[in-house]
Every structure is written in structure tokens, then in C-alpha cells.
Write a structure and sequence with these properties.
- The complex is a heterodimer.
- Chain A is mainly alpha-helical.
- Chain A contains twelve helices and two strands.
- Chain A has helices spanning 2-32, 39-56, 67-94, 103-124, 133-136, 152-174, 176-186, 188-193, 198-222, 233-246, 251-271, 277-291; strands at residues 142-145, 148-151.
- Chain B has helices at residues 43-51, 73-79, 96-103, 112-121, 123-127, 138-150, 168-183, 195-201, 219-223, 226-232; strands at residues 3-14, 17-28, 32-36, 58-63, 66-67, 81-84, 156-160, 187-192, 204-209, 212-218.
- In chain B, helix 3 (96-103) packs parallel to helix 6.
- Classes of the chains: A mainly alpha, B alpha/beta.
- At the A-B interface, helix 7 and helix 8 of A face helix 2 and helix 3 of B.
- Chain A: Pfam families: BPD_transp_2.
Chain lengths: 305, 235
């Protein structure tokens, strides 16, 4: 029982990270119907920014500020900086291609992906960095529910991931920009007729999507996975998978898809095979696609005359 | 009378097709003007040009004293244009209340007093405010579309075929509502195929044929016009 509980906690933590990445895909797809395949690399940049904020504050062992403040700054600066990068990517890689064929932004996205990876390697070198979280958050710190122990890093990640998802839901449902974003996704021309400044809403969408990916990147660093220029590929693919499982364009779908993917991955790693967990992940994708081609929360595709 | 919206010598193209050919029209402050014409004569394109959804190749558009020819739709809506689009174009998966709030987008946020005013005008919507707009009946959707347009406190409402897709009884109600709004001092440009109905409530009218204004005048004069009667009023 405790083993299962442990795997579930791990799965939810991992799933929270996937969900945050998946949201970026779905938000952008919702307003522009493009797949931002540079998203995984945006996540990588977020992880690097978090790392350099950590270094700037004195590093893992000699931090000049208390740990909670350091964590706050790592997340905040990384999210804002990466969010701005999202705006720049939209402006230069996607906006000039608006109105062209559907394949053009896809190719552009791959170009941005390669550009970001190579730029990161050039600027940060090919070395794999580590947040070295255990030096400033002792792994013994944490709490137990029954036999299940959750260390404090996982608690932080879990709470923050859910807090961000909650904040996003509020933003999408309760603010005018969030409402405008949904309106654009539903009927773009009608949204224009209401006086909505489409470009402004698209900028916000890219900012928010990239900021969430950055948060996921910092979480990944805190969970002690390596930070390197190529780190975005697999999580980017998983985030995309999660978004598709949930129904691309659907916000609750991206959240549910991410959490489901994390739990499935964690359980297959725990019970079946560590090496083949990705195999099961993508089996899940294929199964969902066969049974519900529009994803768990997806709308039936409407072909407009 | 002060002109509120002026289209002057407008040429609009879709690709190589010349849709509006030197079209000029004007809506004065407080006026209800109808734009009549058959299918595919450029009525909707005229509205879209006025709103900035399509840009004319030649000509100028003045609204509320400003040259808006090169201005975005967003800017025009901010200046006081609002639209009740063809087929209403509600945001179906959003609630009635959210649709109204979207209408106030250019004001920053919706004023609760404006929402109350729409509910006073259409009491039915108050009961249905949390229902998804897509689940409403045609008549109720029309109310939401008009209410949504009112939310931006417009000086001019552009209406594209308000009678389309409504039953005869609802068409009558719809025109009564338009006349009611006009009585409150709101200027309107109403595009309609139903010439009888439109002329019965309008101050002035224009008749559009293949992208050109072929007739214009007081609604009462147009309603008695022999040629128009034969061409559009079916008698």
C-alpha cells in the first residue's frame, strides 16, 4: 500500500509538471490553431533561468537570502523572463506567418526549437547543470501520511503546480483578457467584431504559456533532474502528448492529461519497467486516440462550411 | 444633423472581384438608416468595411468626426461602433453573462449597471444569465446579441440581417426592439433583405445593387417608390 501511495505521489508531482507544459500547447492551439513545437525548448530556457537565479543568489549552499525567498525569486524571474521570450517567439516566428498555410508555422516552430537548443549550448556550454536541491532543502524534511512520505521538494512542487493551475483557471474565466482568449478560440471573427485586440490577447497567451513552462522547468530542476540544452525534447513531447490526450485546445483537458500521464508513467515505472515507461506512455496516447480521437475533454471537430 | 458615420466613394475588393463600387452613404446622429438589397449585392461587405473587418482599396470612412479608414476594428469599437452580426455569432460555449461581458471588452471591464440595463431591456436574459448562450432559442440569442452590442455603450449599432433565421413573429418582435432602441436615441445602420419591415421603422434608406447605391431617400418615400416596390417588395 505504501509503495502504491508513494508512486501515486510521485506520479502526481510529475503529472503536475507535465500539465503545466501541456497547458502552453493547448492555450496557443486554442487561439492560433498552431502547434508550438518550440515549447519544450522554452521549458529548457526556464530551467536555465531558474538555475542562474540560484547562482546569482549565492548558489545552493551559500545563498544570500532565505530558502523560501530564493525559491520565490527563481520561479518569479524565470517565469517572467521566459514569458517575455514567448512573446518574442510569437512576434518573430509566428506572426509573420499568420494567414499562410498551416504547415508554415509548424516548420517555423521546429526552427525556433533548433535555434533555442543551439543557442543554449553555445551560451551555456554542453555541460549538464544541477540545482543541487538537496544542499539547501534537506531530503529528510517532509511529512508522512500513513506510510507515505512526501519530501518537502515534492510538496513544494505539488502545491505550486496546483496553485498555478488554479490561478490560470481564474485568469481564463474571470478576467477580460482570459475571456477574450476563449472568445477568440470559439469564433475569431466574432471576437474581432467585439473590438478585441487579437494581437494583444495572443501576446498574453504566449506569455502565460511560456511562463507556465518555465515554472515546470524550475520544478524539474528542483526535482534534481539535469539541466541541459537538450532537456526540453522529451518533456516537450510528453507535454504535447498530455495536451492531445486531454483534447488539444482544452484547458481542463491539458491539466487532466498531464496528471494522468504522470501517474501512468510513475506506476509503470514502479510496477512494470523503468526502461519502458515511455513505451506505456505512448501506448496510452494511441489508446486514447483510438477510443476518443478528440481527446478526453476535446470537442467534436466541427468542419466549417 | 451631424453626420456620425460617413462612407465616401468606397471600393472594396475580394481578390479580383470588385464588390463595392464607389459606394457612399451616411448615418447621422440619432438616425436609423436601413441598407436594402438582395442576396450578394454587398450589404454585409458594406458593414464589414464600416467596421474595419475588410479594408477598402479606395475611399474614406469617417466615424464620430475621425478618419478611421486605416484604423483597426478594435479602435472603431472603442470610438463607439458596435455590431450585431449576421446569424448573431454568439460565443455559444460561454454563458449569457460572459457574452455580455465580452461586449464590454473595449471598456476594460463590464459595468454592473450596464448589465442591469440589458436585463431591464430583456428580463428573460436575467433568468438565463448563467445558461450557455448556444442553448438559447433564436429569439433569446437575438436578445443576447443586441445586449452584447449595447455593453460597449455604442454611439452607432450596425445590424446585419436582424431578421435572418427568425420566425415571422420573432422578426416582428426583433424590429419592435430595434425601433425601441432607436427611440432611446441610438443611431443604427440596419442591413436587411426584408425591405417592408426595415422601411417601416427606418428614417432613411439606401438600396444597394451589385455594389452600387441605386436609390436613396426618406424611408417613407422609398416605401412608395414604384421601382423598389417591383424589385424588392414583391408587388
Amino acid at each position: 500500500m505504501s509503495y502504491l501511495g508513494q508512486q501515486l505521489v510521485n506520479g502526481l508531482t510529475l503529472g503536475g509538471v507535465y500539465a503545466l507544459i501541456a497547458l502552453g500547447y493547448s492555450l496557443v492551439y486554442g487561439v492560433l490553431q498552431i502547434l508550438n513545437f518550440a515549447h519544450g525548448d522554452v521549458y529548457m530556457v526556464g530551467a536555465f533561468l531558474g538555475y542562474f537565479v540560484e547562482l546569482a543568489l549565492g548558489g545552493p549552499t551559500k545563498s544570500i537570502v532565505p530558502v523560501p525567498i530564493m525559491l520565490f525569486l527563481m520561479f518569479a524571474i524565470s517565469m517572467i523572463g521566459t514569458g517575455l521570450l514567448g512573446i518574442v517567439i510569437e512576434r518573430f516566428a509566428y506572426r509573420p506567418l499568420r494567414g499562410s498555410s498551416r504547415i508554415a508555422p509548424l516548420i517555423s516552430a521546429l526552427g525556433v526549437s533548433i535555434l533555442l537548443q543551439n543557442a543554449a549550448q553555445l551560451i551555456f556550454s554542453a555541460n549538464i547543470r544541477s540545482y543541487d536541491t538537496s544542499s539547501f532543502i534537506p531530503s529528510t524534511l517532509g511529512f508522512s501520511i500513513g506510510d507515505v512520505t512526501i519530501d518537502s521538494v515534492r510538496i513544494t512542487v505539488l502545491i505550486l503546480a496546483f496553485a498555478l493551475m488554479f490561478a490560470l483557471s481564474r485568469w481564463v474565466n474571470k478576467t477580460q483578457v482570459g475571456r477574450a482568449m476563449r472568445a477568440i478560440a470559439i469564433d475569431r471573427d466574432a471576437a474581432v467584431m467585439m473590438g478585441i485586440d487579437i494581437d494583444k490577447v495572443i501576446r498574453w497567451t504566449f506569455f502565460v504559456g511560456a511562463a507556465l513552462a518555465a515554472a515546470a522547468g524550475v520544478m524539474n530542476g528542483l526535482l534534481l533532474r539535469g539541466v541541459s540544452s537538450g532537456m526540453g525534447f522529451v518533456p516537450g513531447l510528453k507535454g504535447f502528448t498530455a495536451a492531445v490526450i486531454g483534447g488539444i485546445g482544452s484547458i481542463p483537458g491539458a491539466m487532466a492529461g498531464g496528471l494522468l500521464l504522470g501517474v501512468v508513467e510513475s506506476l509503470t515505472q514502479g510496477y512494470l519497467s523503468t526502461n519502458f515507461s515511455d513505451f506505456y506512455t505512448f501506448i496510452l496516447l494511441i489508446a486514447v486516440m483510438l477510443l476518443r480521437p478528440n481527446g478526453l475533454f476535446g470537442k467534436k471537430a466541427i468542419v466549417k462550411a | 444633423m451631424k453626420p456620425l458615420l460617413t462612407l465616401e466613394n468606397i471600393d472594396t475588393y475580394y481578390g479580383a472581384i470588385h464588390i463595392l463600387q464607389g459606394l457612399s452613404l451616411q448615418v447621422n446622429e440619432g438616425e436609423l438608416v436601413c441598407l436594402l438589397g438582395g442576396n450578394a449585392c454587398g450589404k454585409s461587405t458594406t458593414l464589414k468595411t464600416a467596421l474595419g473587418m475588410v479594408s477598402p482599396k479606395n475611399g474614406s470612412i469617417t466615424f464620430a468626426g475621425e478618419d478611421v479608414t486605416k484604423k483597426s476594428t478594435s479602435t472603431r469599437v472603442k470610438l463607439g461602433m458596435a455590431v450585431v452580426p449576421e446569424n448573431r455569432r454568439l460565443f455559444g460555449p460561454m454563458t449569457v453573462l460572459e457574452n455580455l461581458k465580452i461586449g464590454a471588452y473595449v471598456l476594460g471591464d463590464a459595468d454592473p449597471a450596464d448589465i442591469e440595463r440589458v436585463f431591464e431591456l430583456f428580463p428573460k436574459l436575467k433568468d438565463r444569465q448563467n445558461q450557455l448562450a448556444g442553448t438559447l432559442s433564436g429569439g433569446e440569442q437575438q436578445m443576447v446579441a443586441v445586449g452584447r452590442a449595447l455593453m460597449s455603450r455604442p454611439r452607432l449599432i450596425l445590424m446585419d440581417e436582424p431578421s435572418m433565421g427568425l420566425s415571422p413573429r420573432l422578426v416582428e418582435q426583433s424590429f419592435e426592439m430595434i425601433a425601441g432602441l432607436h427611440a432611446q436615441g441610438i443611431s443604427m445602420l440596419v442591413v436587411e433583405q426584408n425591405a417592408n419591415m426595415a422601411l417601416s421603422i427606418a428614417d432613411r434608406g439606401y438600396v444597394l445593387q451589385t455594389g452600387r447605391i441605386v436609390l436613396e431617400g426618406k424611408a417613407s418615400e422609398l416605401a412608395g417608390h414604384e421601382e423598389l416596390r417591383r424589385a424588392y417588395l414583391g408587388r
